[in-house]
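Please predict the structure of the following assembly.
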Amino acid sequence: MKIIVLKFGGTSVGSIHRIKKVSRIIKSYSKKYKVIVLSSAMSGTTNKLINMSKQISSNFSDYEYDTLVSAGEQISCSLLAGQLLANGIKSKSWMAWQIPILTEGKHKYSRIKYINKTKVLKFLKSGGIPIIAGFQGVDKNLNITTIGRGGSDSSAIMVAKFFKAERCVIYTDVEGVYTTDPNKLKSAKKIKNISYEEMLEMASLGSKIMQPHSIQDARLNRIKIQVKSSFVNRMGTIITKRKNIINNKIITGISSTDNDAKVTLLGVKDRPGIAASIFKPLSQNLINVDMVVQNISSDGKETDLTFTIKSYDLNKTKKIINKNKSINFKKMIFDKNVSKVSIIGVGMITTPGVTFRMFQALATKNINIQVISTSEIKISVLIKKTNVTKAVKCLHQEFNLDK
Amino acid sequence: MKIIVLKFGGTSVGSIHRIKKVSRIIKSYSKKYKVIVLSSAMSGTTNKLINMSKQISSNFSDYEYDTLVSAGEQISCSLLAGQLLANGIKSKSWMAWQIPILTEGKHKYSRIKYINKTKVLKFLKSGGIPIIAGFQGVDKNLNITTIGRGGSDSSAIMVAKFFKAERCVIYTDVEGVYTTDPNKLKSAKKIKNISYEEMLEMASLGSKIMQPHSIQDARLNRIKIQVKSSFVNRMGTIITKRKNIINNKIITGISSTDNDAKVTLLGVKDRPGIAASIFKPLSQNLINVDMVVQNISSDGKETDLTFTIKSYDLNKTKKIINKNKSINFKKMIFDKNVSKVSIIGVGMITTPGVTFRMFQALATKNINIQVISTSEIKISVLIKKTNVTKAVKCLHQEFNLDK
């Protein structure tokens, strides 16, 4: 019998009513599979615990933070196992230290290194359904660790990896991955199959269903993921290898951001190493520079440099650049009224002219492109924020995602 | 430097404000002592978790119950350690399994068997203040256990035992142990010193400050206890060995119960073993029989048997007795309108006439005594519930407890 991993997010186990519902979902798998369940904390719990820690200190100990917040999964997992037992199904909750799920790295941001399968496998073989606490780990000195917000997805992927599961089902409060945000565009369609690479681009570009690093973990370990809703019983979206996907569409999805800012330095001395001298202090201050464009100067002496950052980093960026005397420029201008719109699809690798079609479609709607950046499976453009809805809609049509 | 154990109950750590207050109390000890802290869950947390388990099933798994409710201490201890750290005091939270505090026995009602001192002692010697989760344990198979409601007191006593602490301070929301319930009698006085034996009688007879079994643990291990308030800085009550106490009073305290019921079987066949045949099925059904009195029959053939039980056990008791055909009696009568009033004091061992003084004082107030039971340091009488206040007041005066 094959092993399947089911992971339930916070809203899926957000109340006793939801826990009862989820226990029926788990049972429905138990005839065909050996089931391992991973659960997040009940929605609201983690935030409540974090708020208490903030009331104590804005600089609350990372060590105690991990012990504090991991109590949330202890509560949800024991309740869920208790519910299954009350339904007559053999089940047991497992905290990370009981398995153990060994982590390494810093508190709050640990990474799962090793999962000891012995006890859980014995329980599975005896017909039991283990309910494993997501998000938690334990280090080699028996300290409680956590693996970052949204880390329960990573826990599930890693459990799927170590137990060689056939599939990892991520149960959440949306029905799957959409061609674009269905809250913003009504004609958005659920995607049946998407590749890890596309999903990674979707995730890093603003789609909030899964954290990029858990998709990357799945990609590296070739874990097939299914994202689906625990509220309605529909197919959801499969995230898998490129070659498993038969797709006649060039573009798989469109994403947009709403917290970018554009910085332009005018009259920068055009000499080798100038870009590095600007971006090095930003990177040292953990400011992530996204799109970069440098205009060629007419006289070969001066140039204009434009880049984008997250808008919440704008004040810090201004200070760093103004303080750093080695950066010579005439004027700095900035614009928070910008958004990045991206089209994503493995289909564009083999299809010429995608860039042209994108630019033309935007031009038809009088949308001006400020900055462009591309990767193998993605084209991003920076445009005026007020144009985002119009841009997403016309691109969605242009690449036949409405159908 | 001597070790002191400080234990904080749920109301003492019931909010972030209270945790800040408690952190200052802890600090005040740290100059004179090496401090080990035990904490309960924040008040309300444990009940909230238990209520969730009841919403799942009235027969919620004992195993999962222990995992569920022990999350409460995980939260309070990490917050308290985080608060001390924020104040610049070296501190660290310890869950039972991290130490470990090994328990044996059934889930929900485990007993602490062994505490490994190595890691905590090293931390103490390095100048740290360990914050240990009360109520929790772990068994030899790494299962989470708990040691019963109010078990944090037992945790503190056992930690005090294993670490050879000079004293165990139980911080709570009352100022100490009183001669009688101060909510019921205004002239009740705080007791400065009380023996384990007296405190045990006070605790089992209705005083709610500490669970009897934790006092018994302290008595067996000769741990000096101080009960005091975390809300006001006053001396509190010392619970210690009899010979440490200089007390000129015959009676130390008076307690009363308000949930007793009296059962009388009329016309019971008077033959050897008849009492056993009645009480055996009750004990098998975990019904605790307290006071017993058997009248001598005039003809030697029949007798009347009276006993008291907790009033919540009354219906169960009636059923058991009616079902059991081997018990021959003519009629069963019962009375829920009764209370047990007890005077407690080691002084009565060496003072004759205490019983007489008690009975006479009650007689003066026209209070009829229904059943009597005595131990070496206690005299209990069963009276009408409506007479309790009057009885406690007159006995409090009779034995000079008002002064």
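The first helix of chain A runs from residue 16 to 29. Chain A has two domains: 3-173, 256-398.
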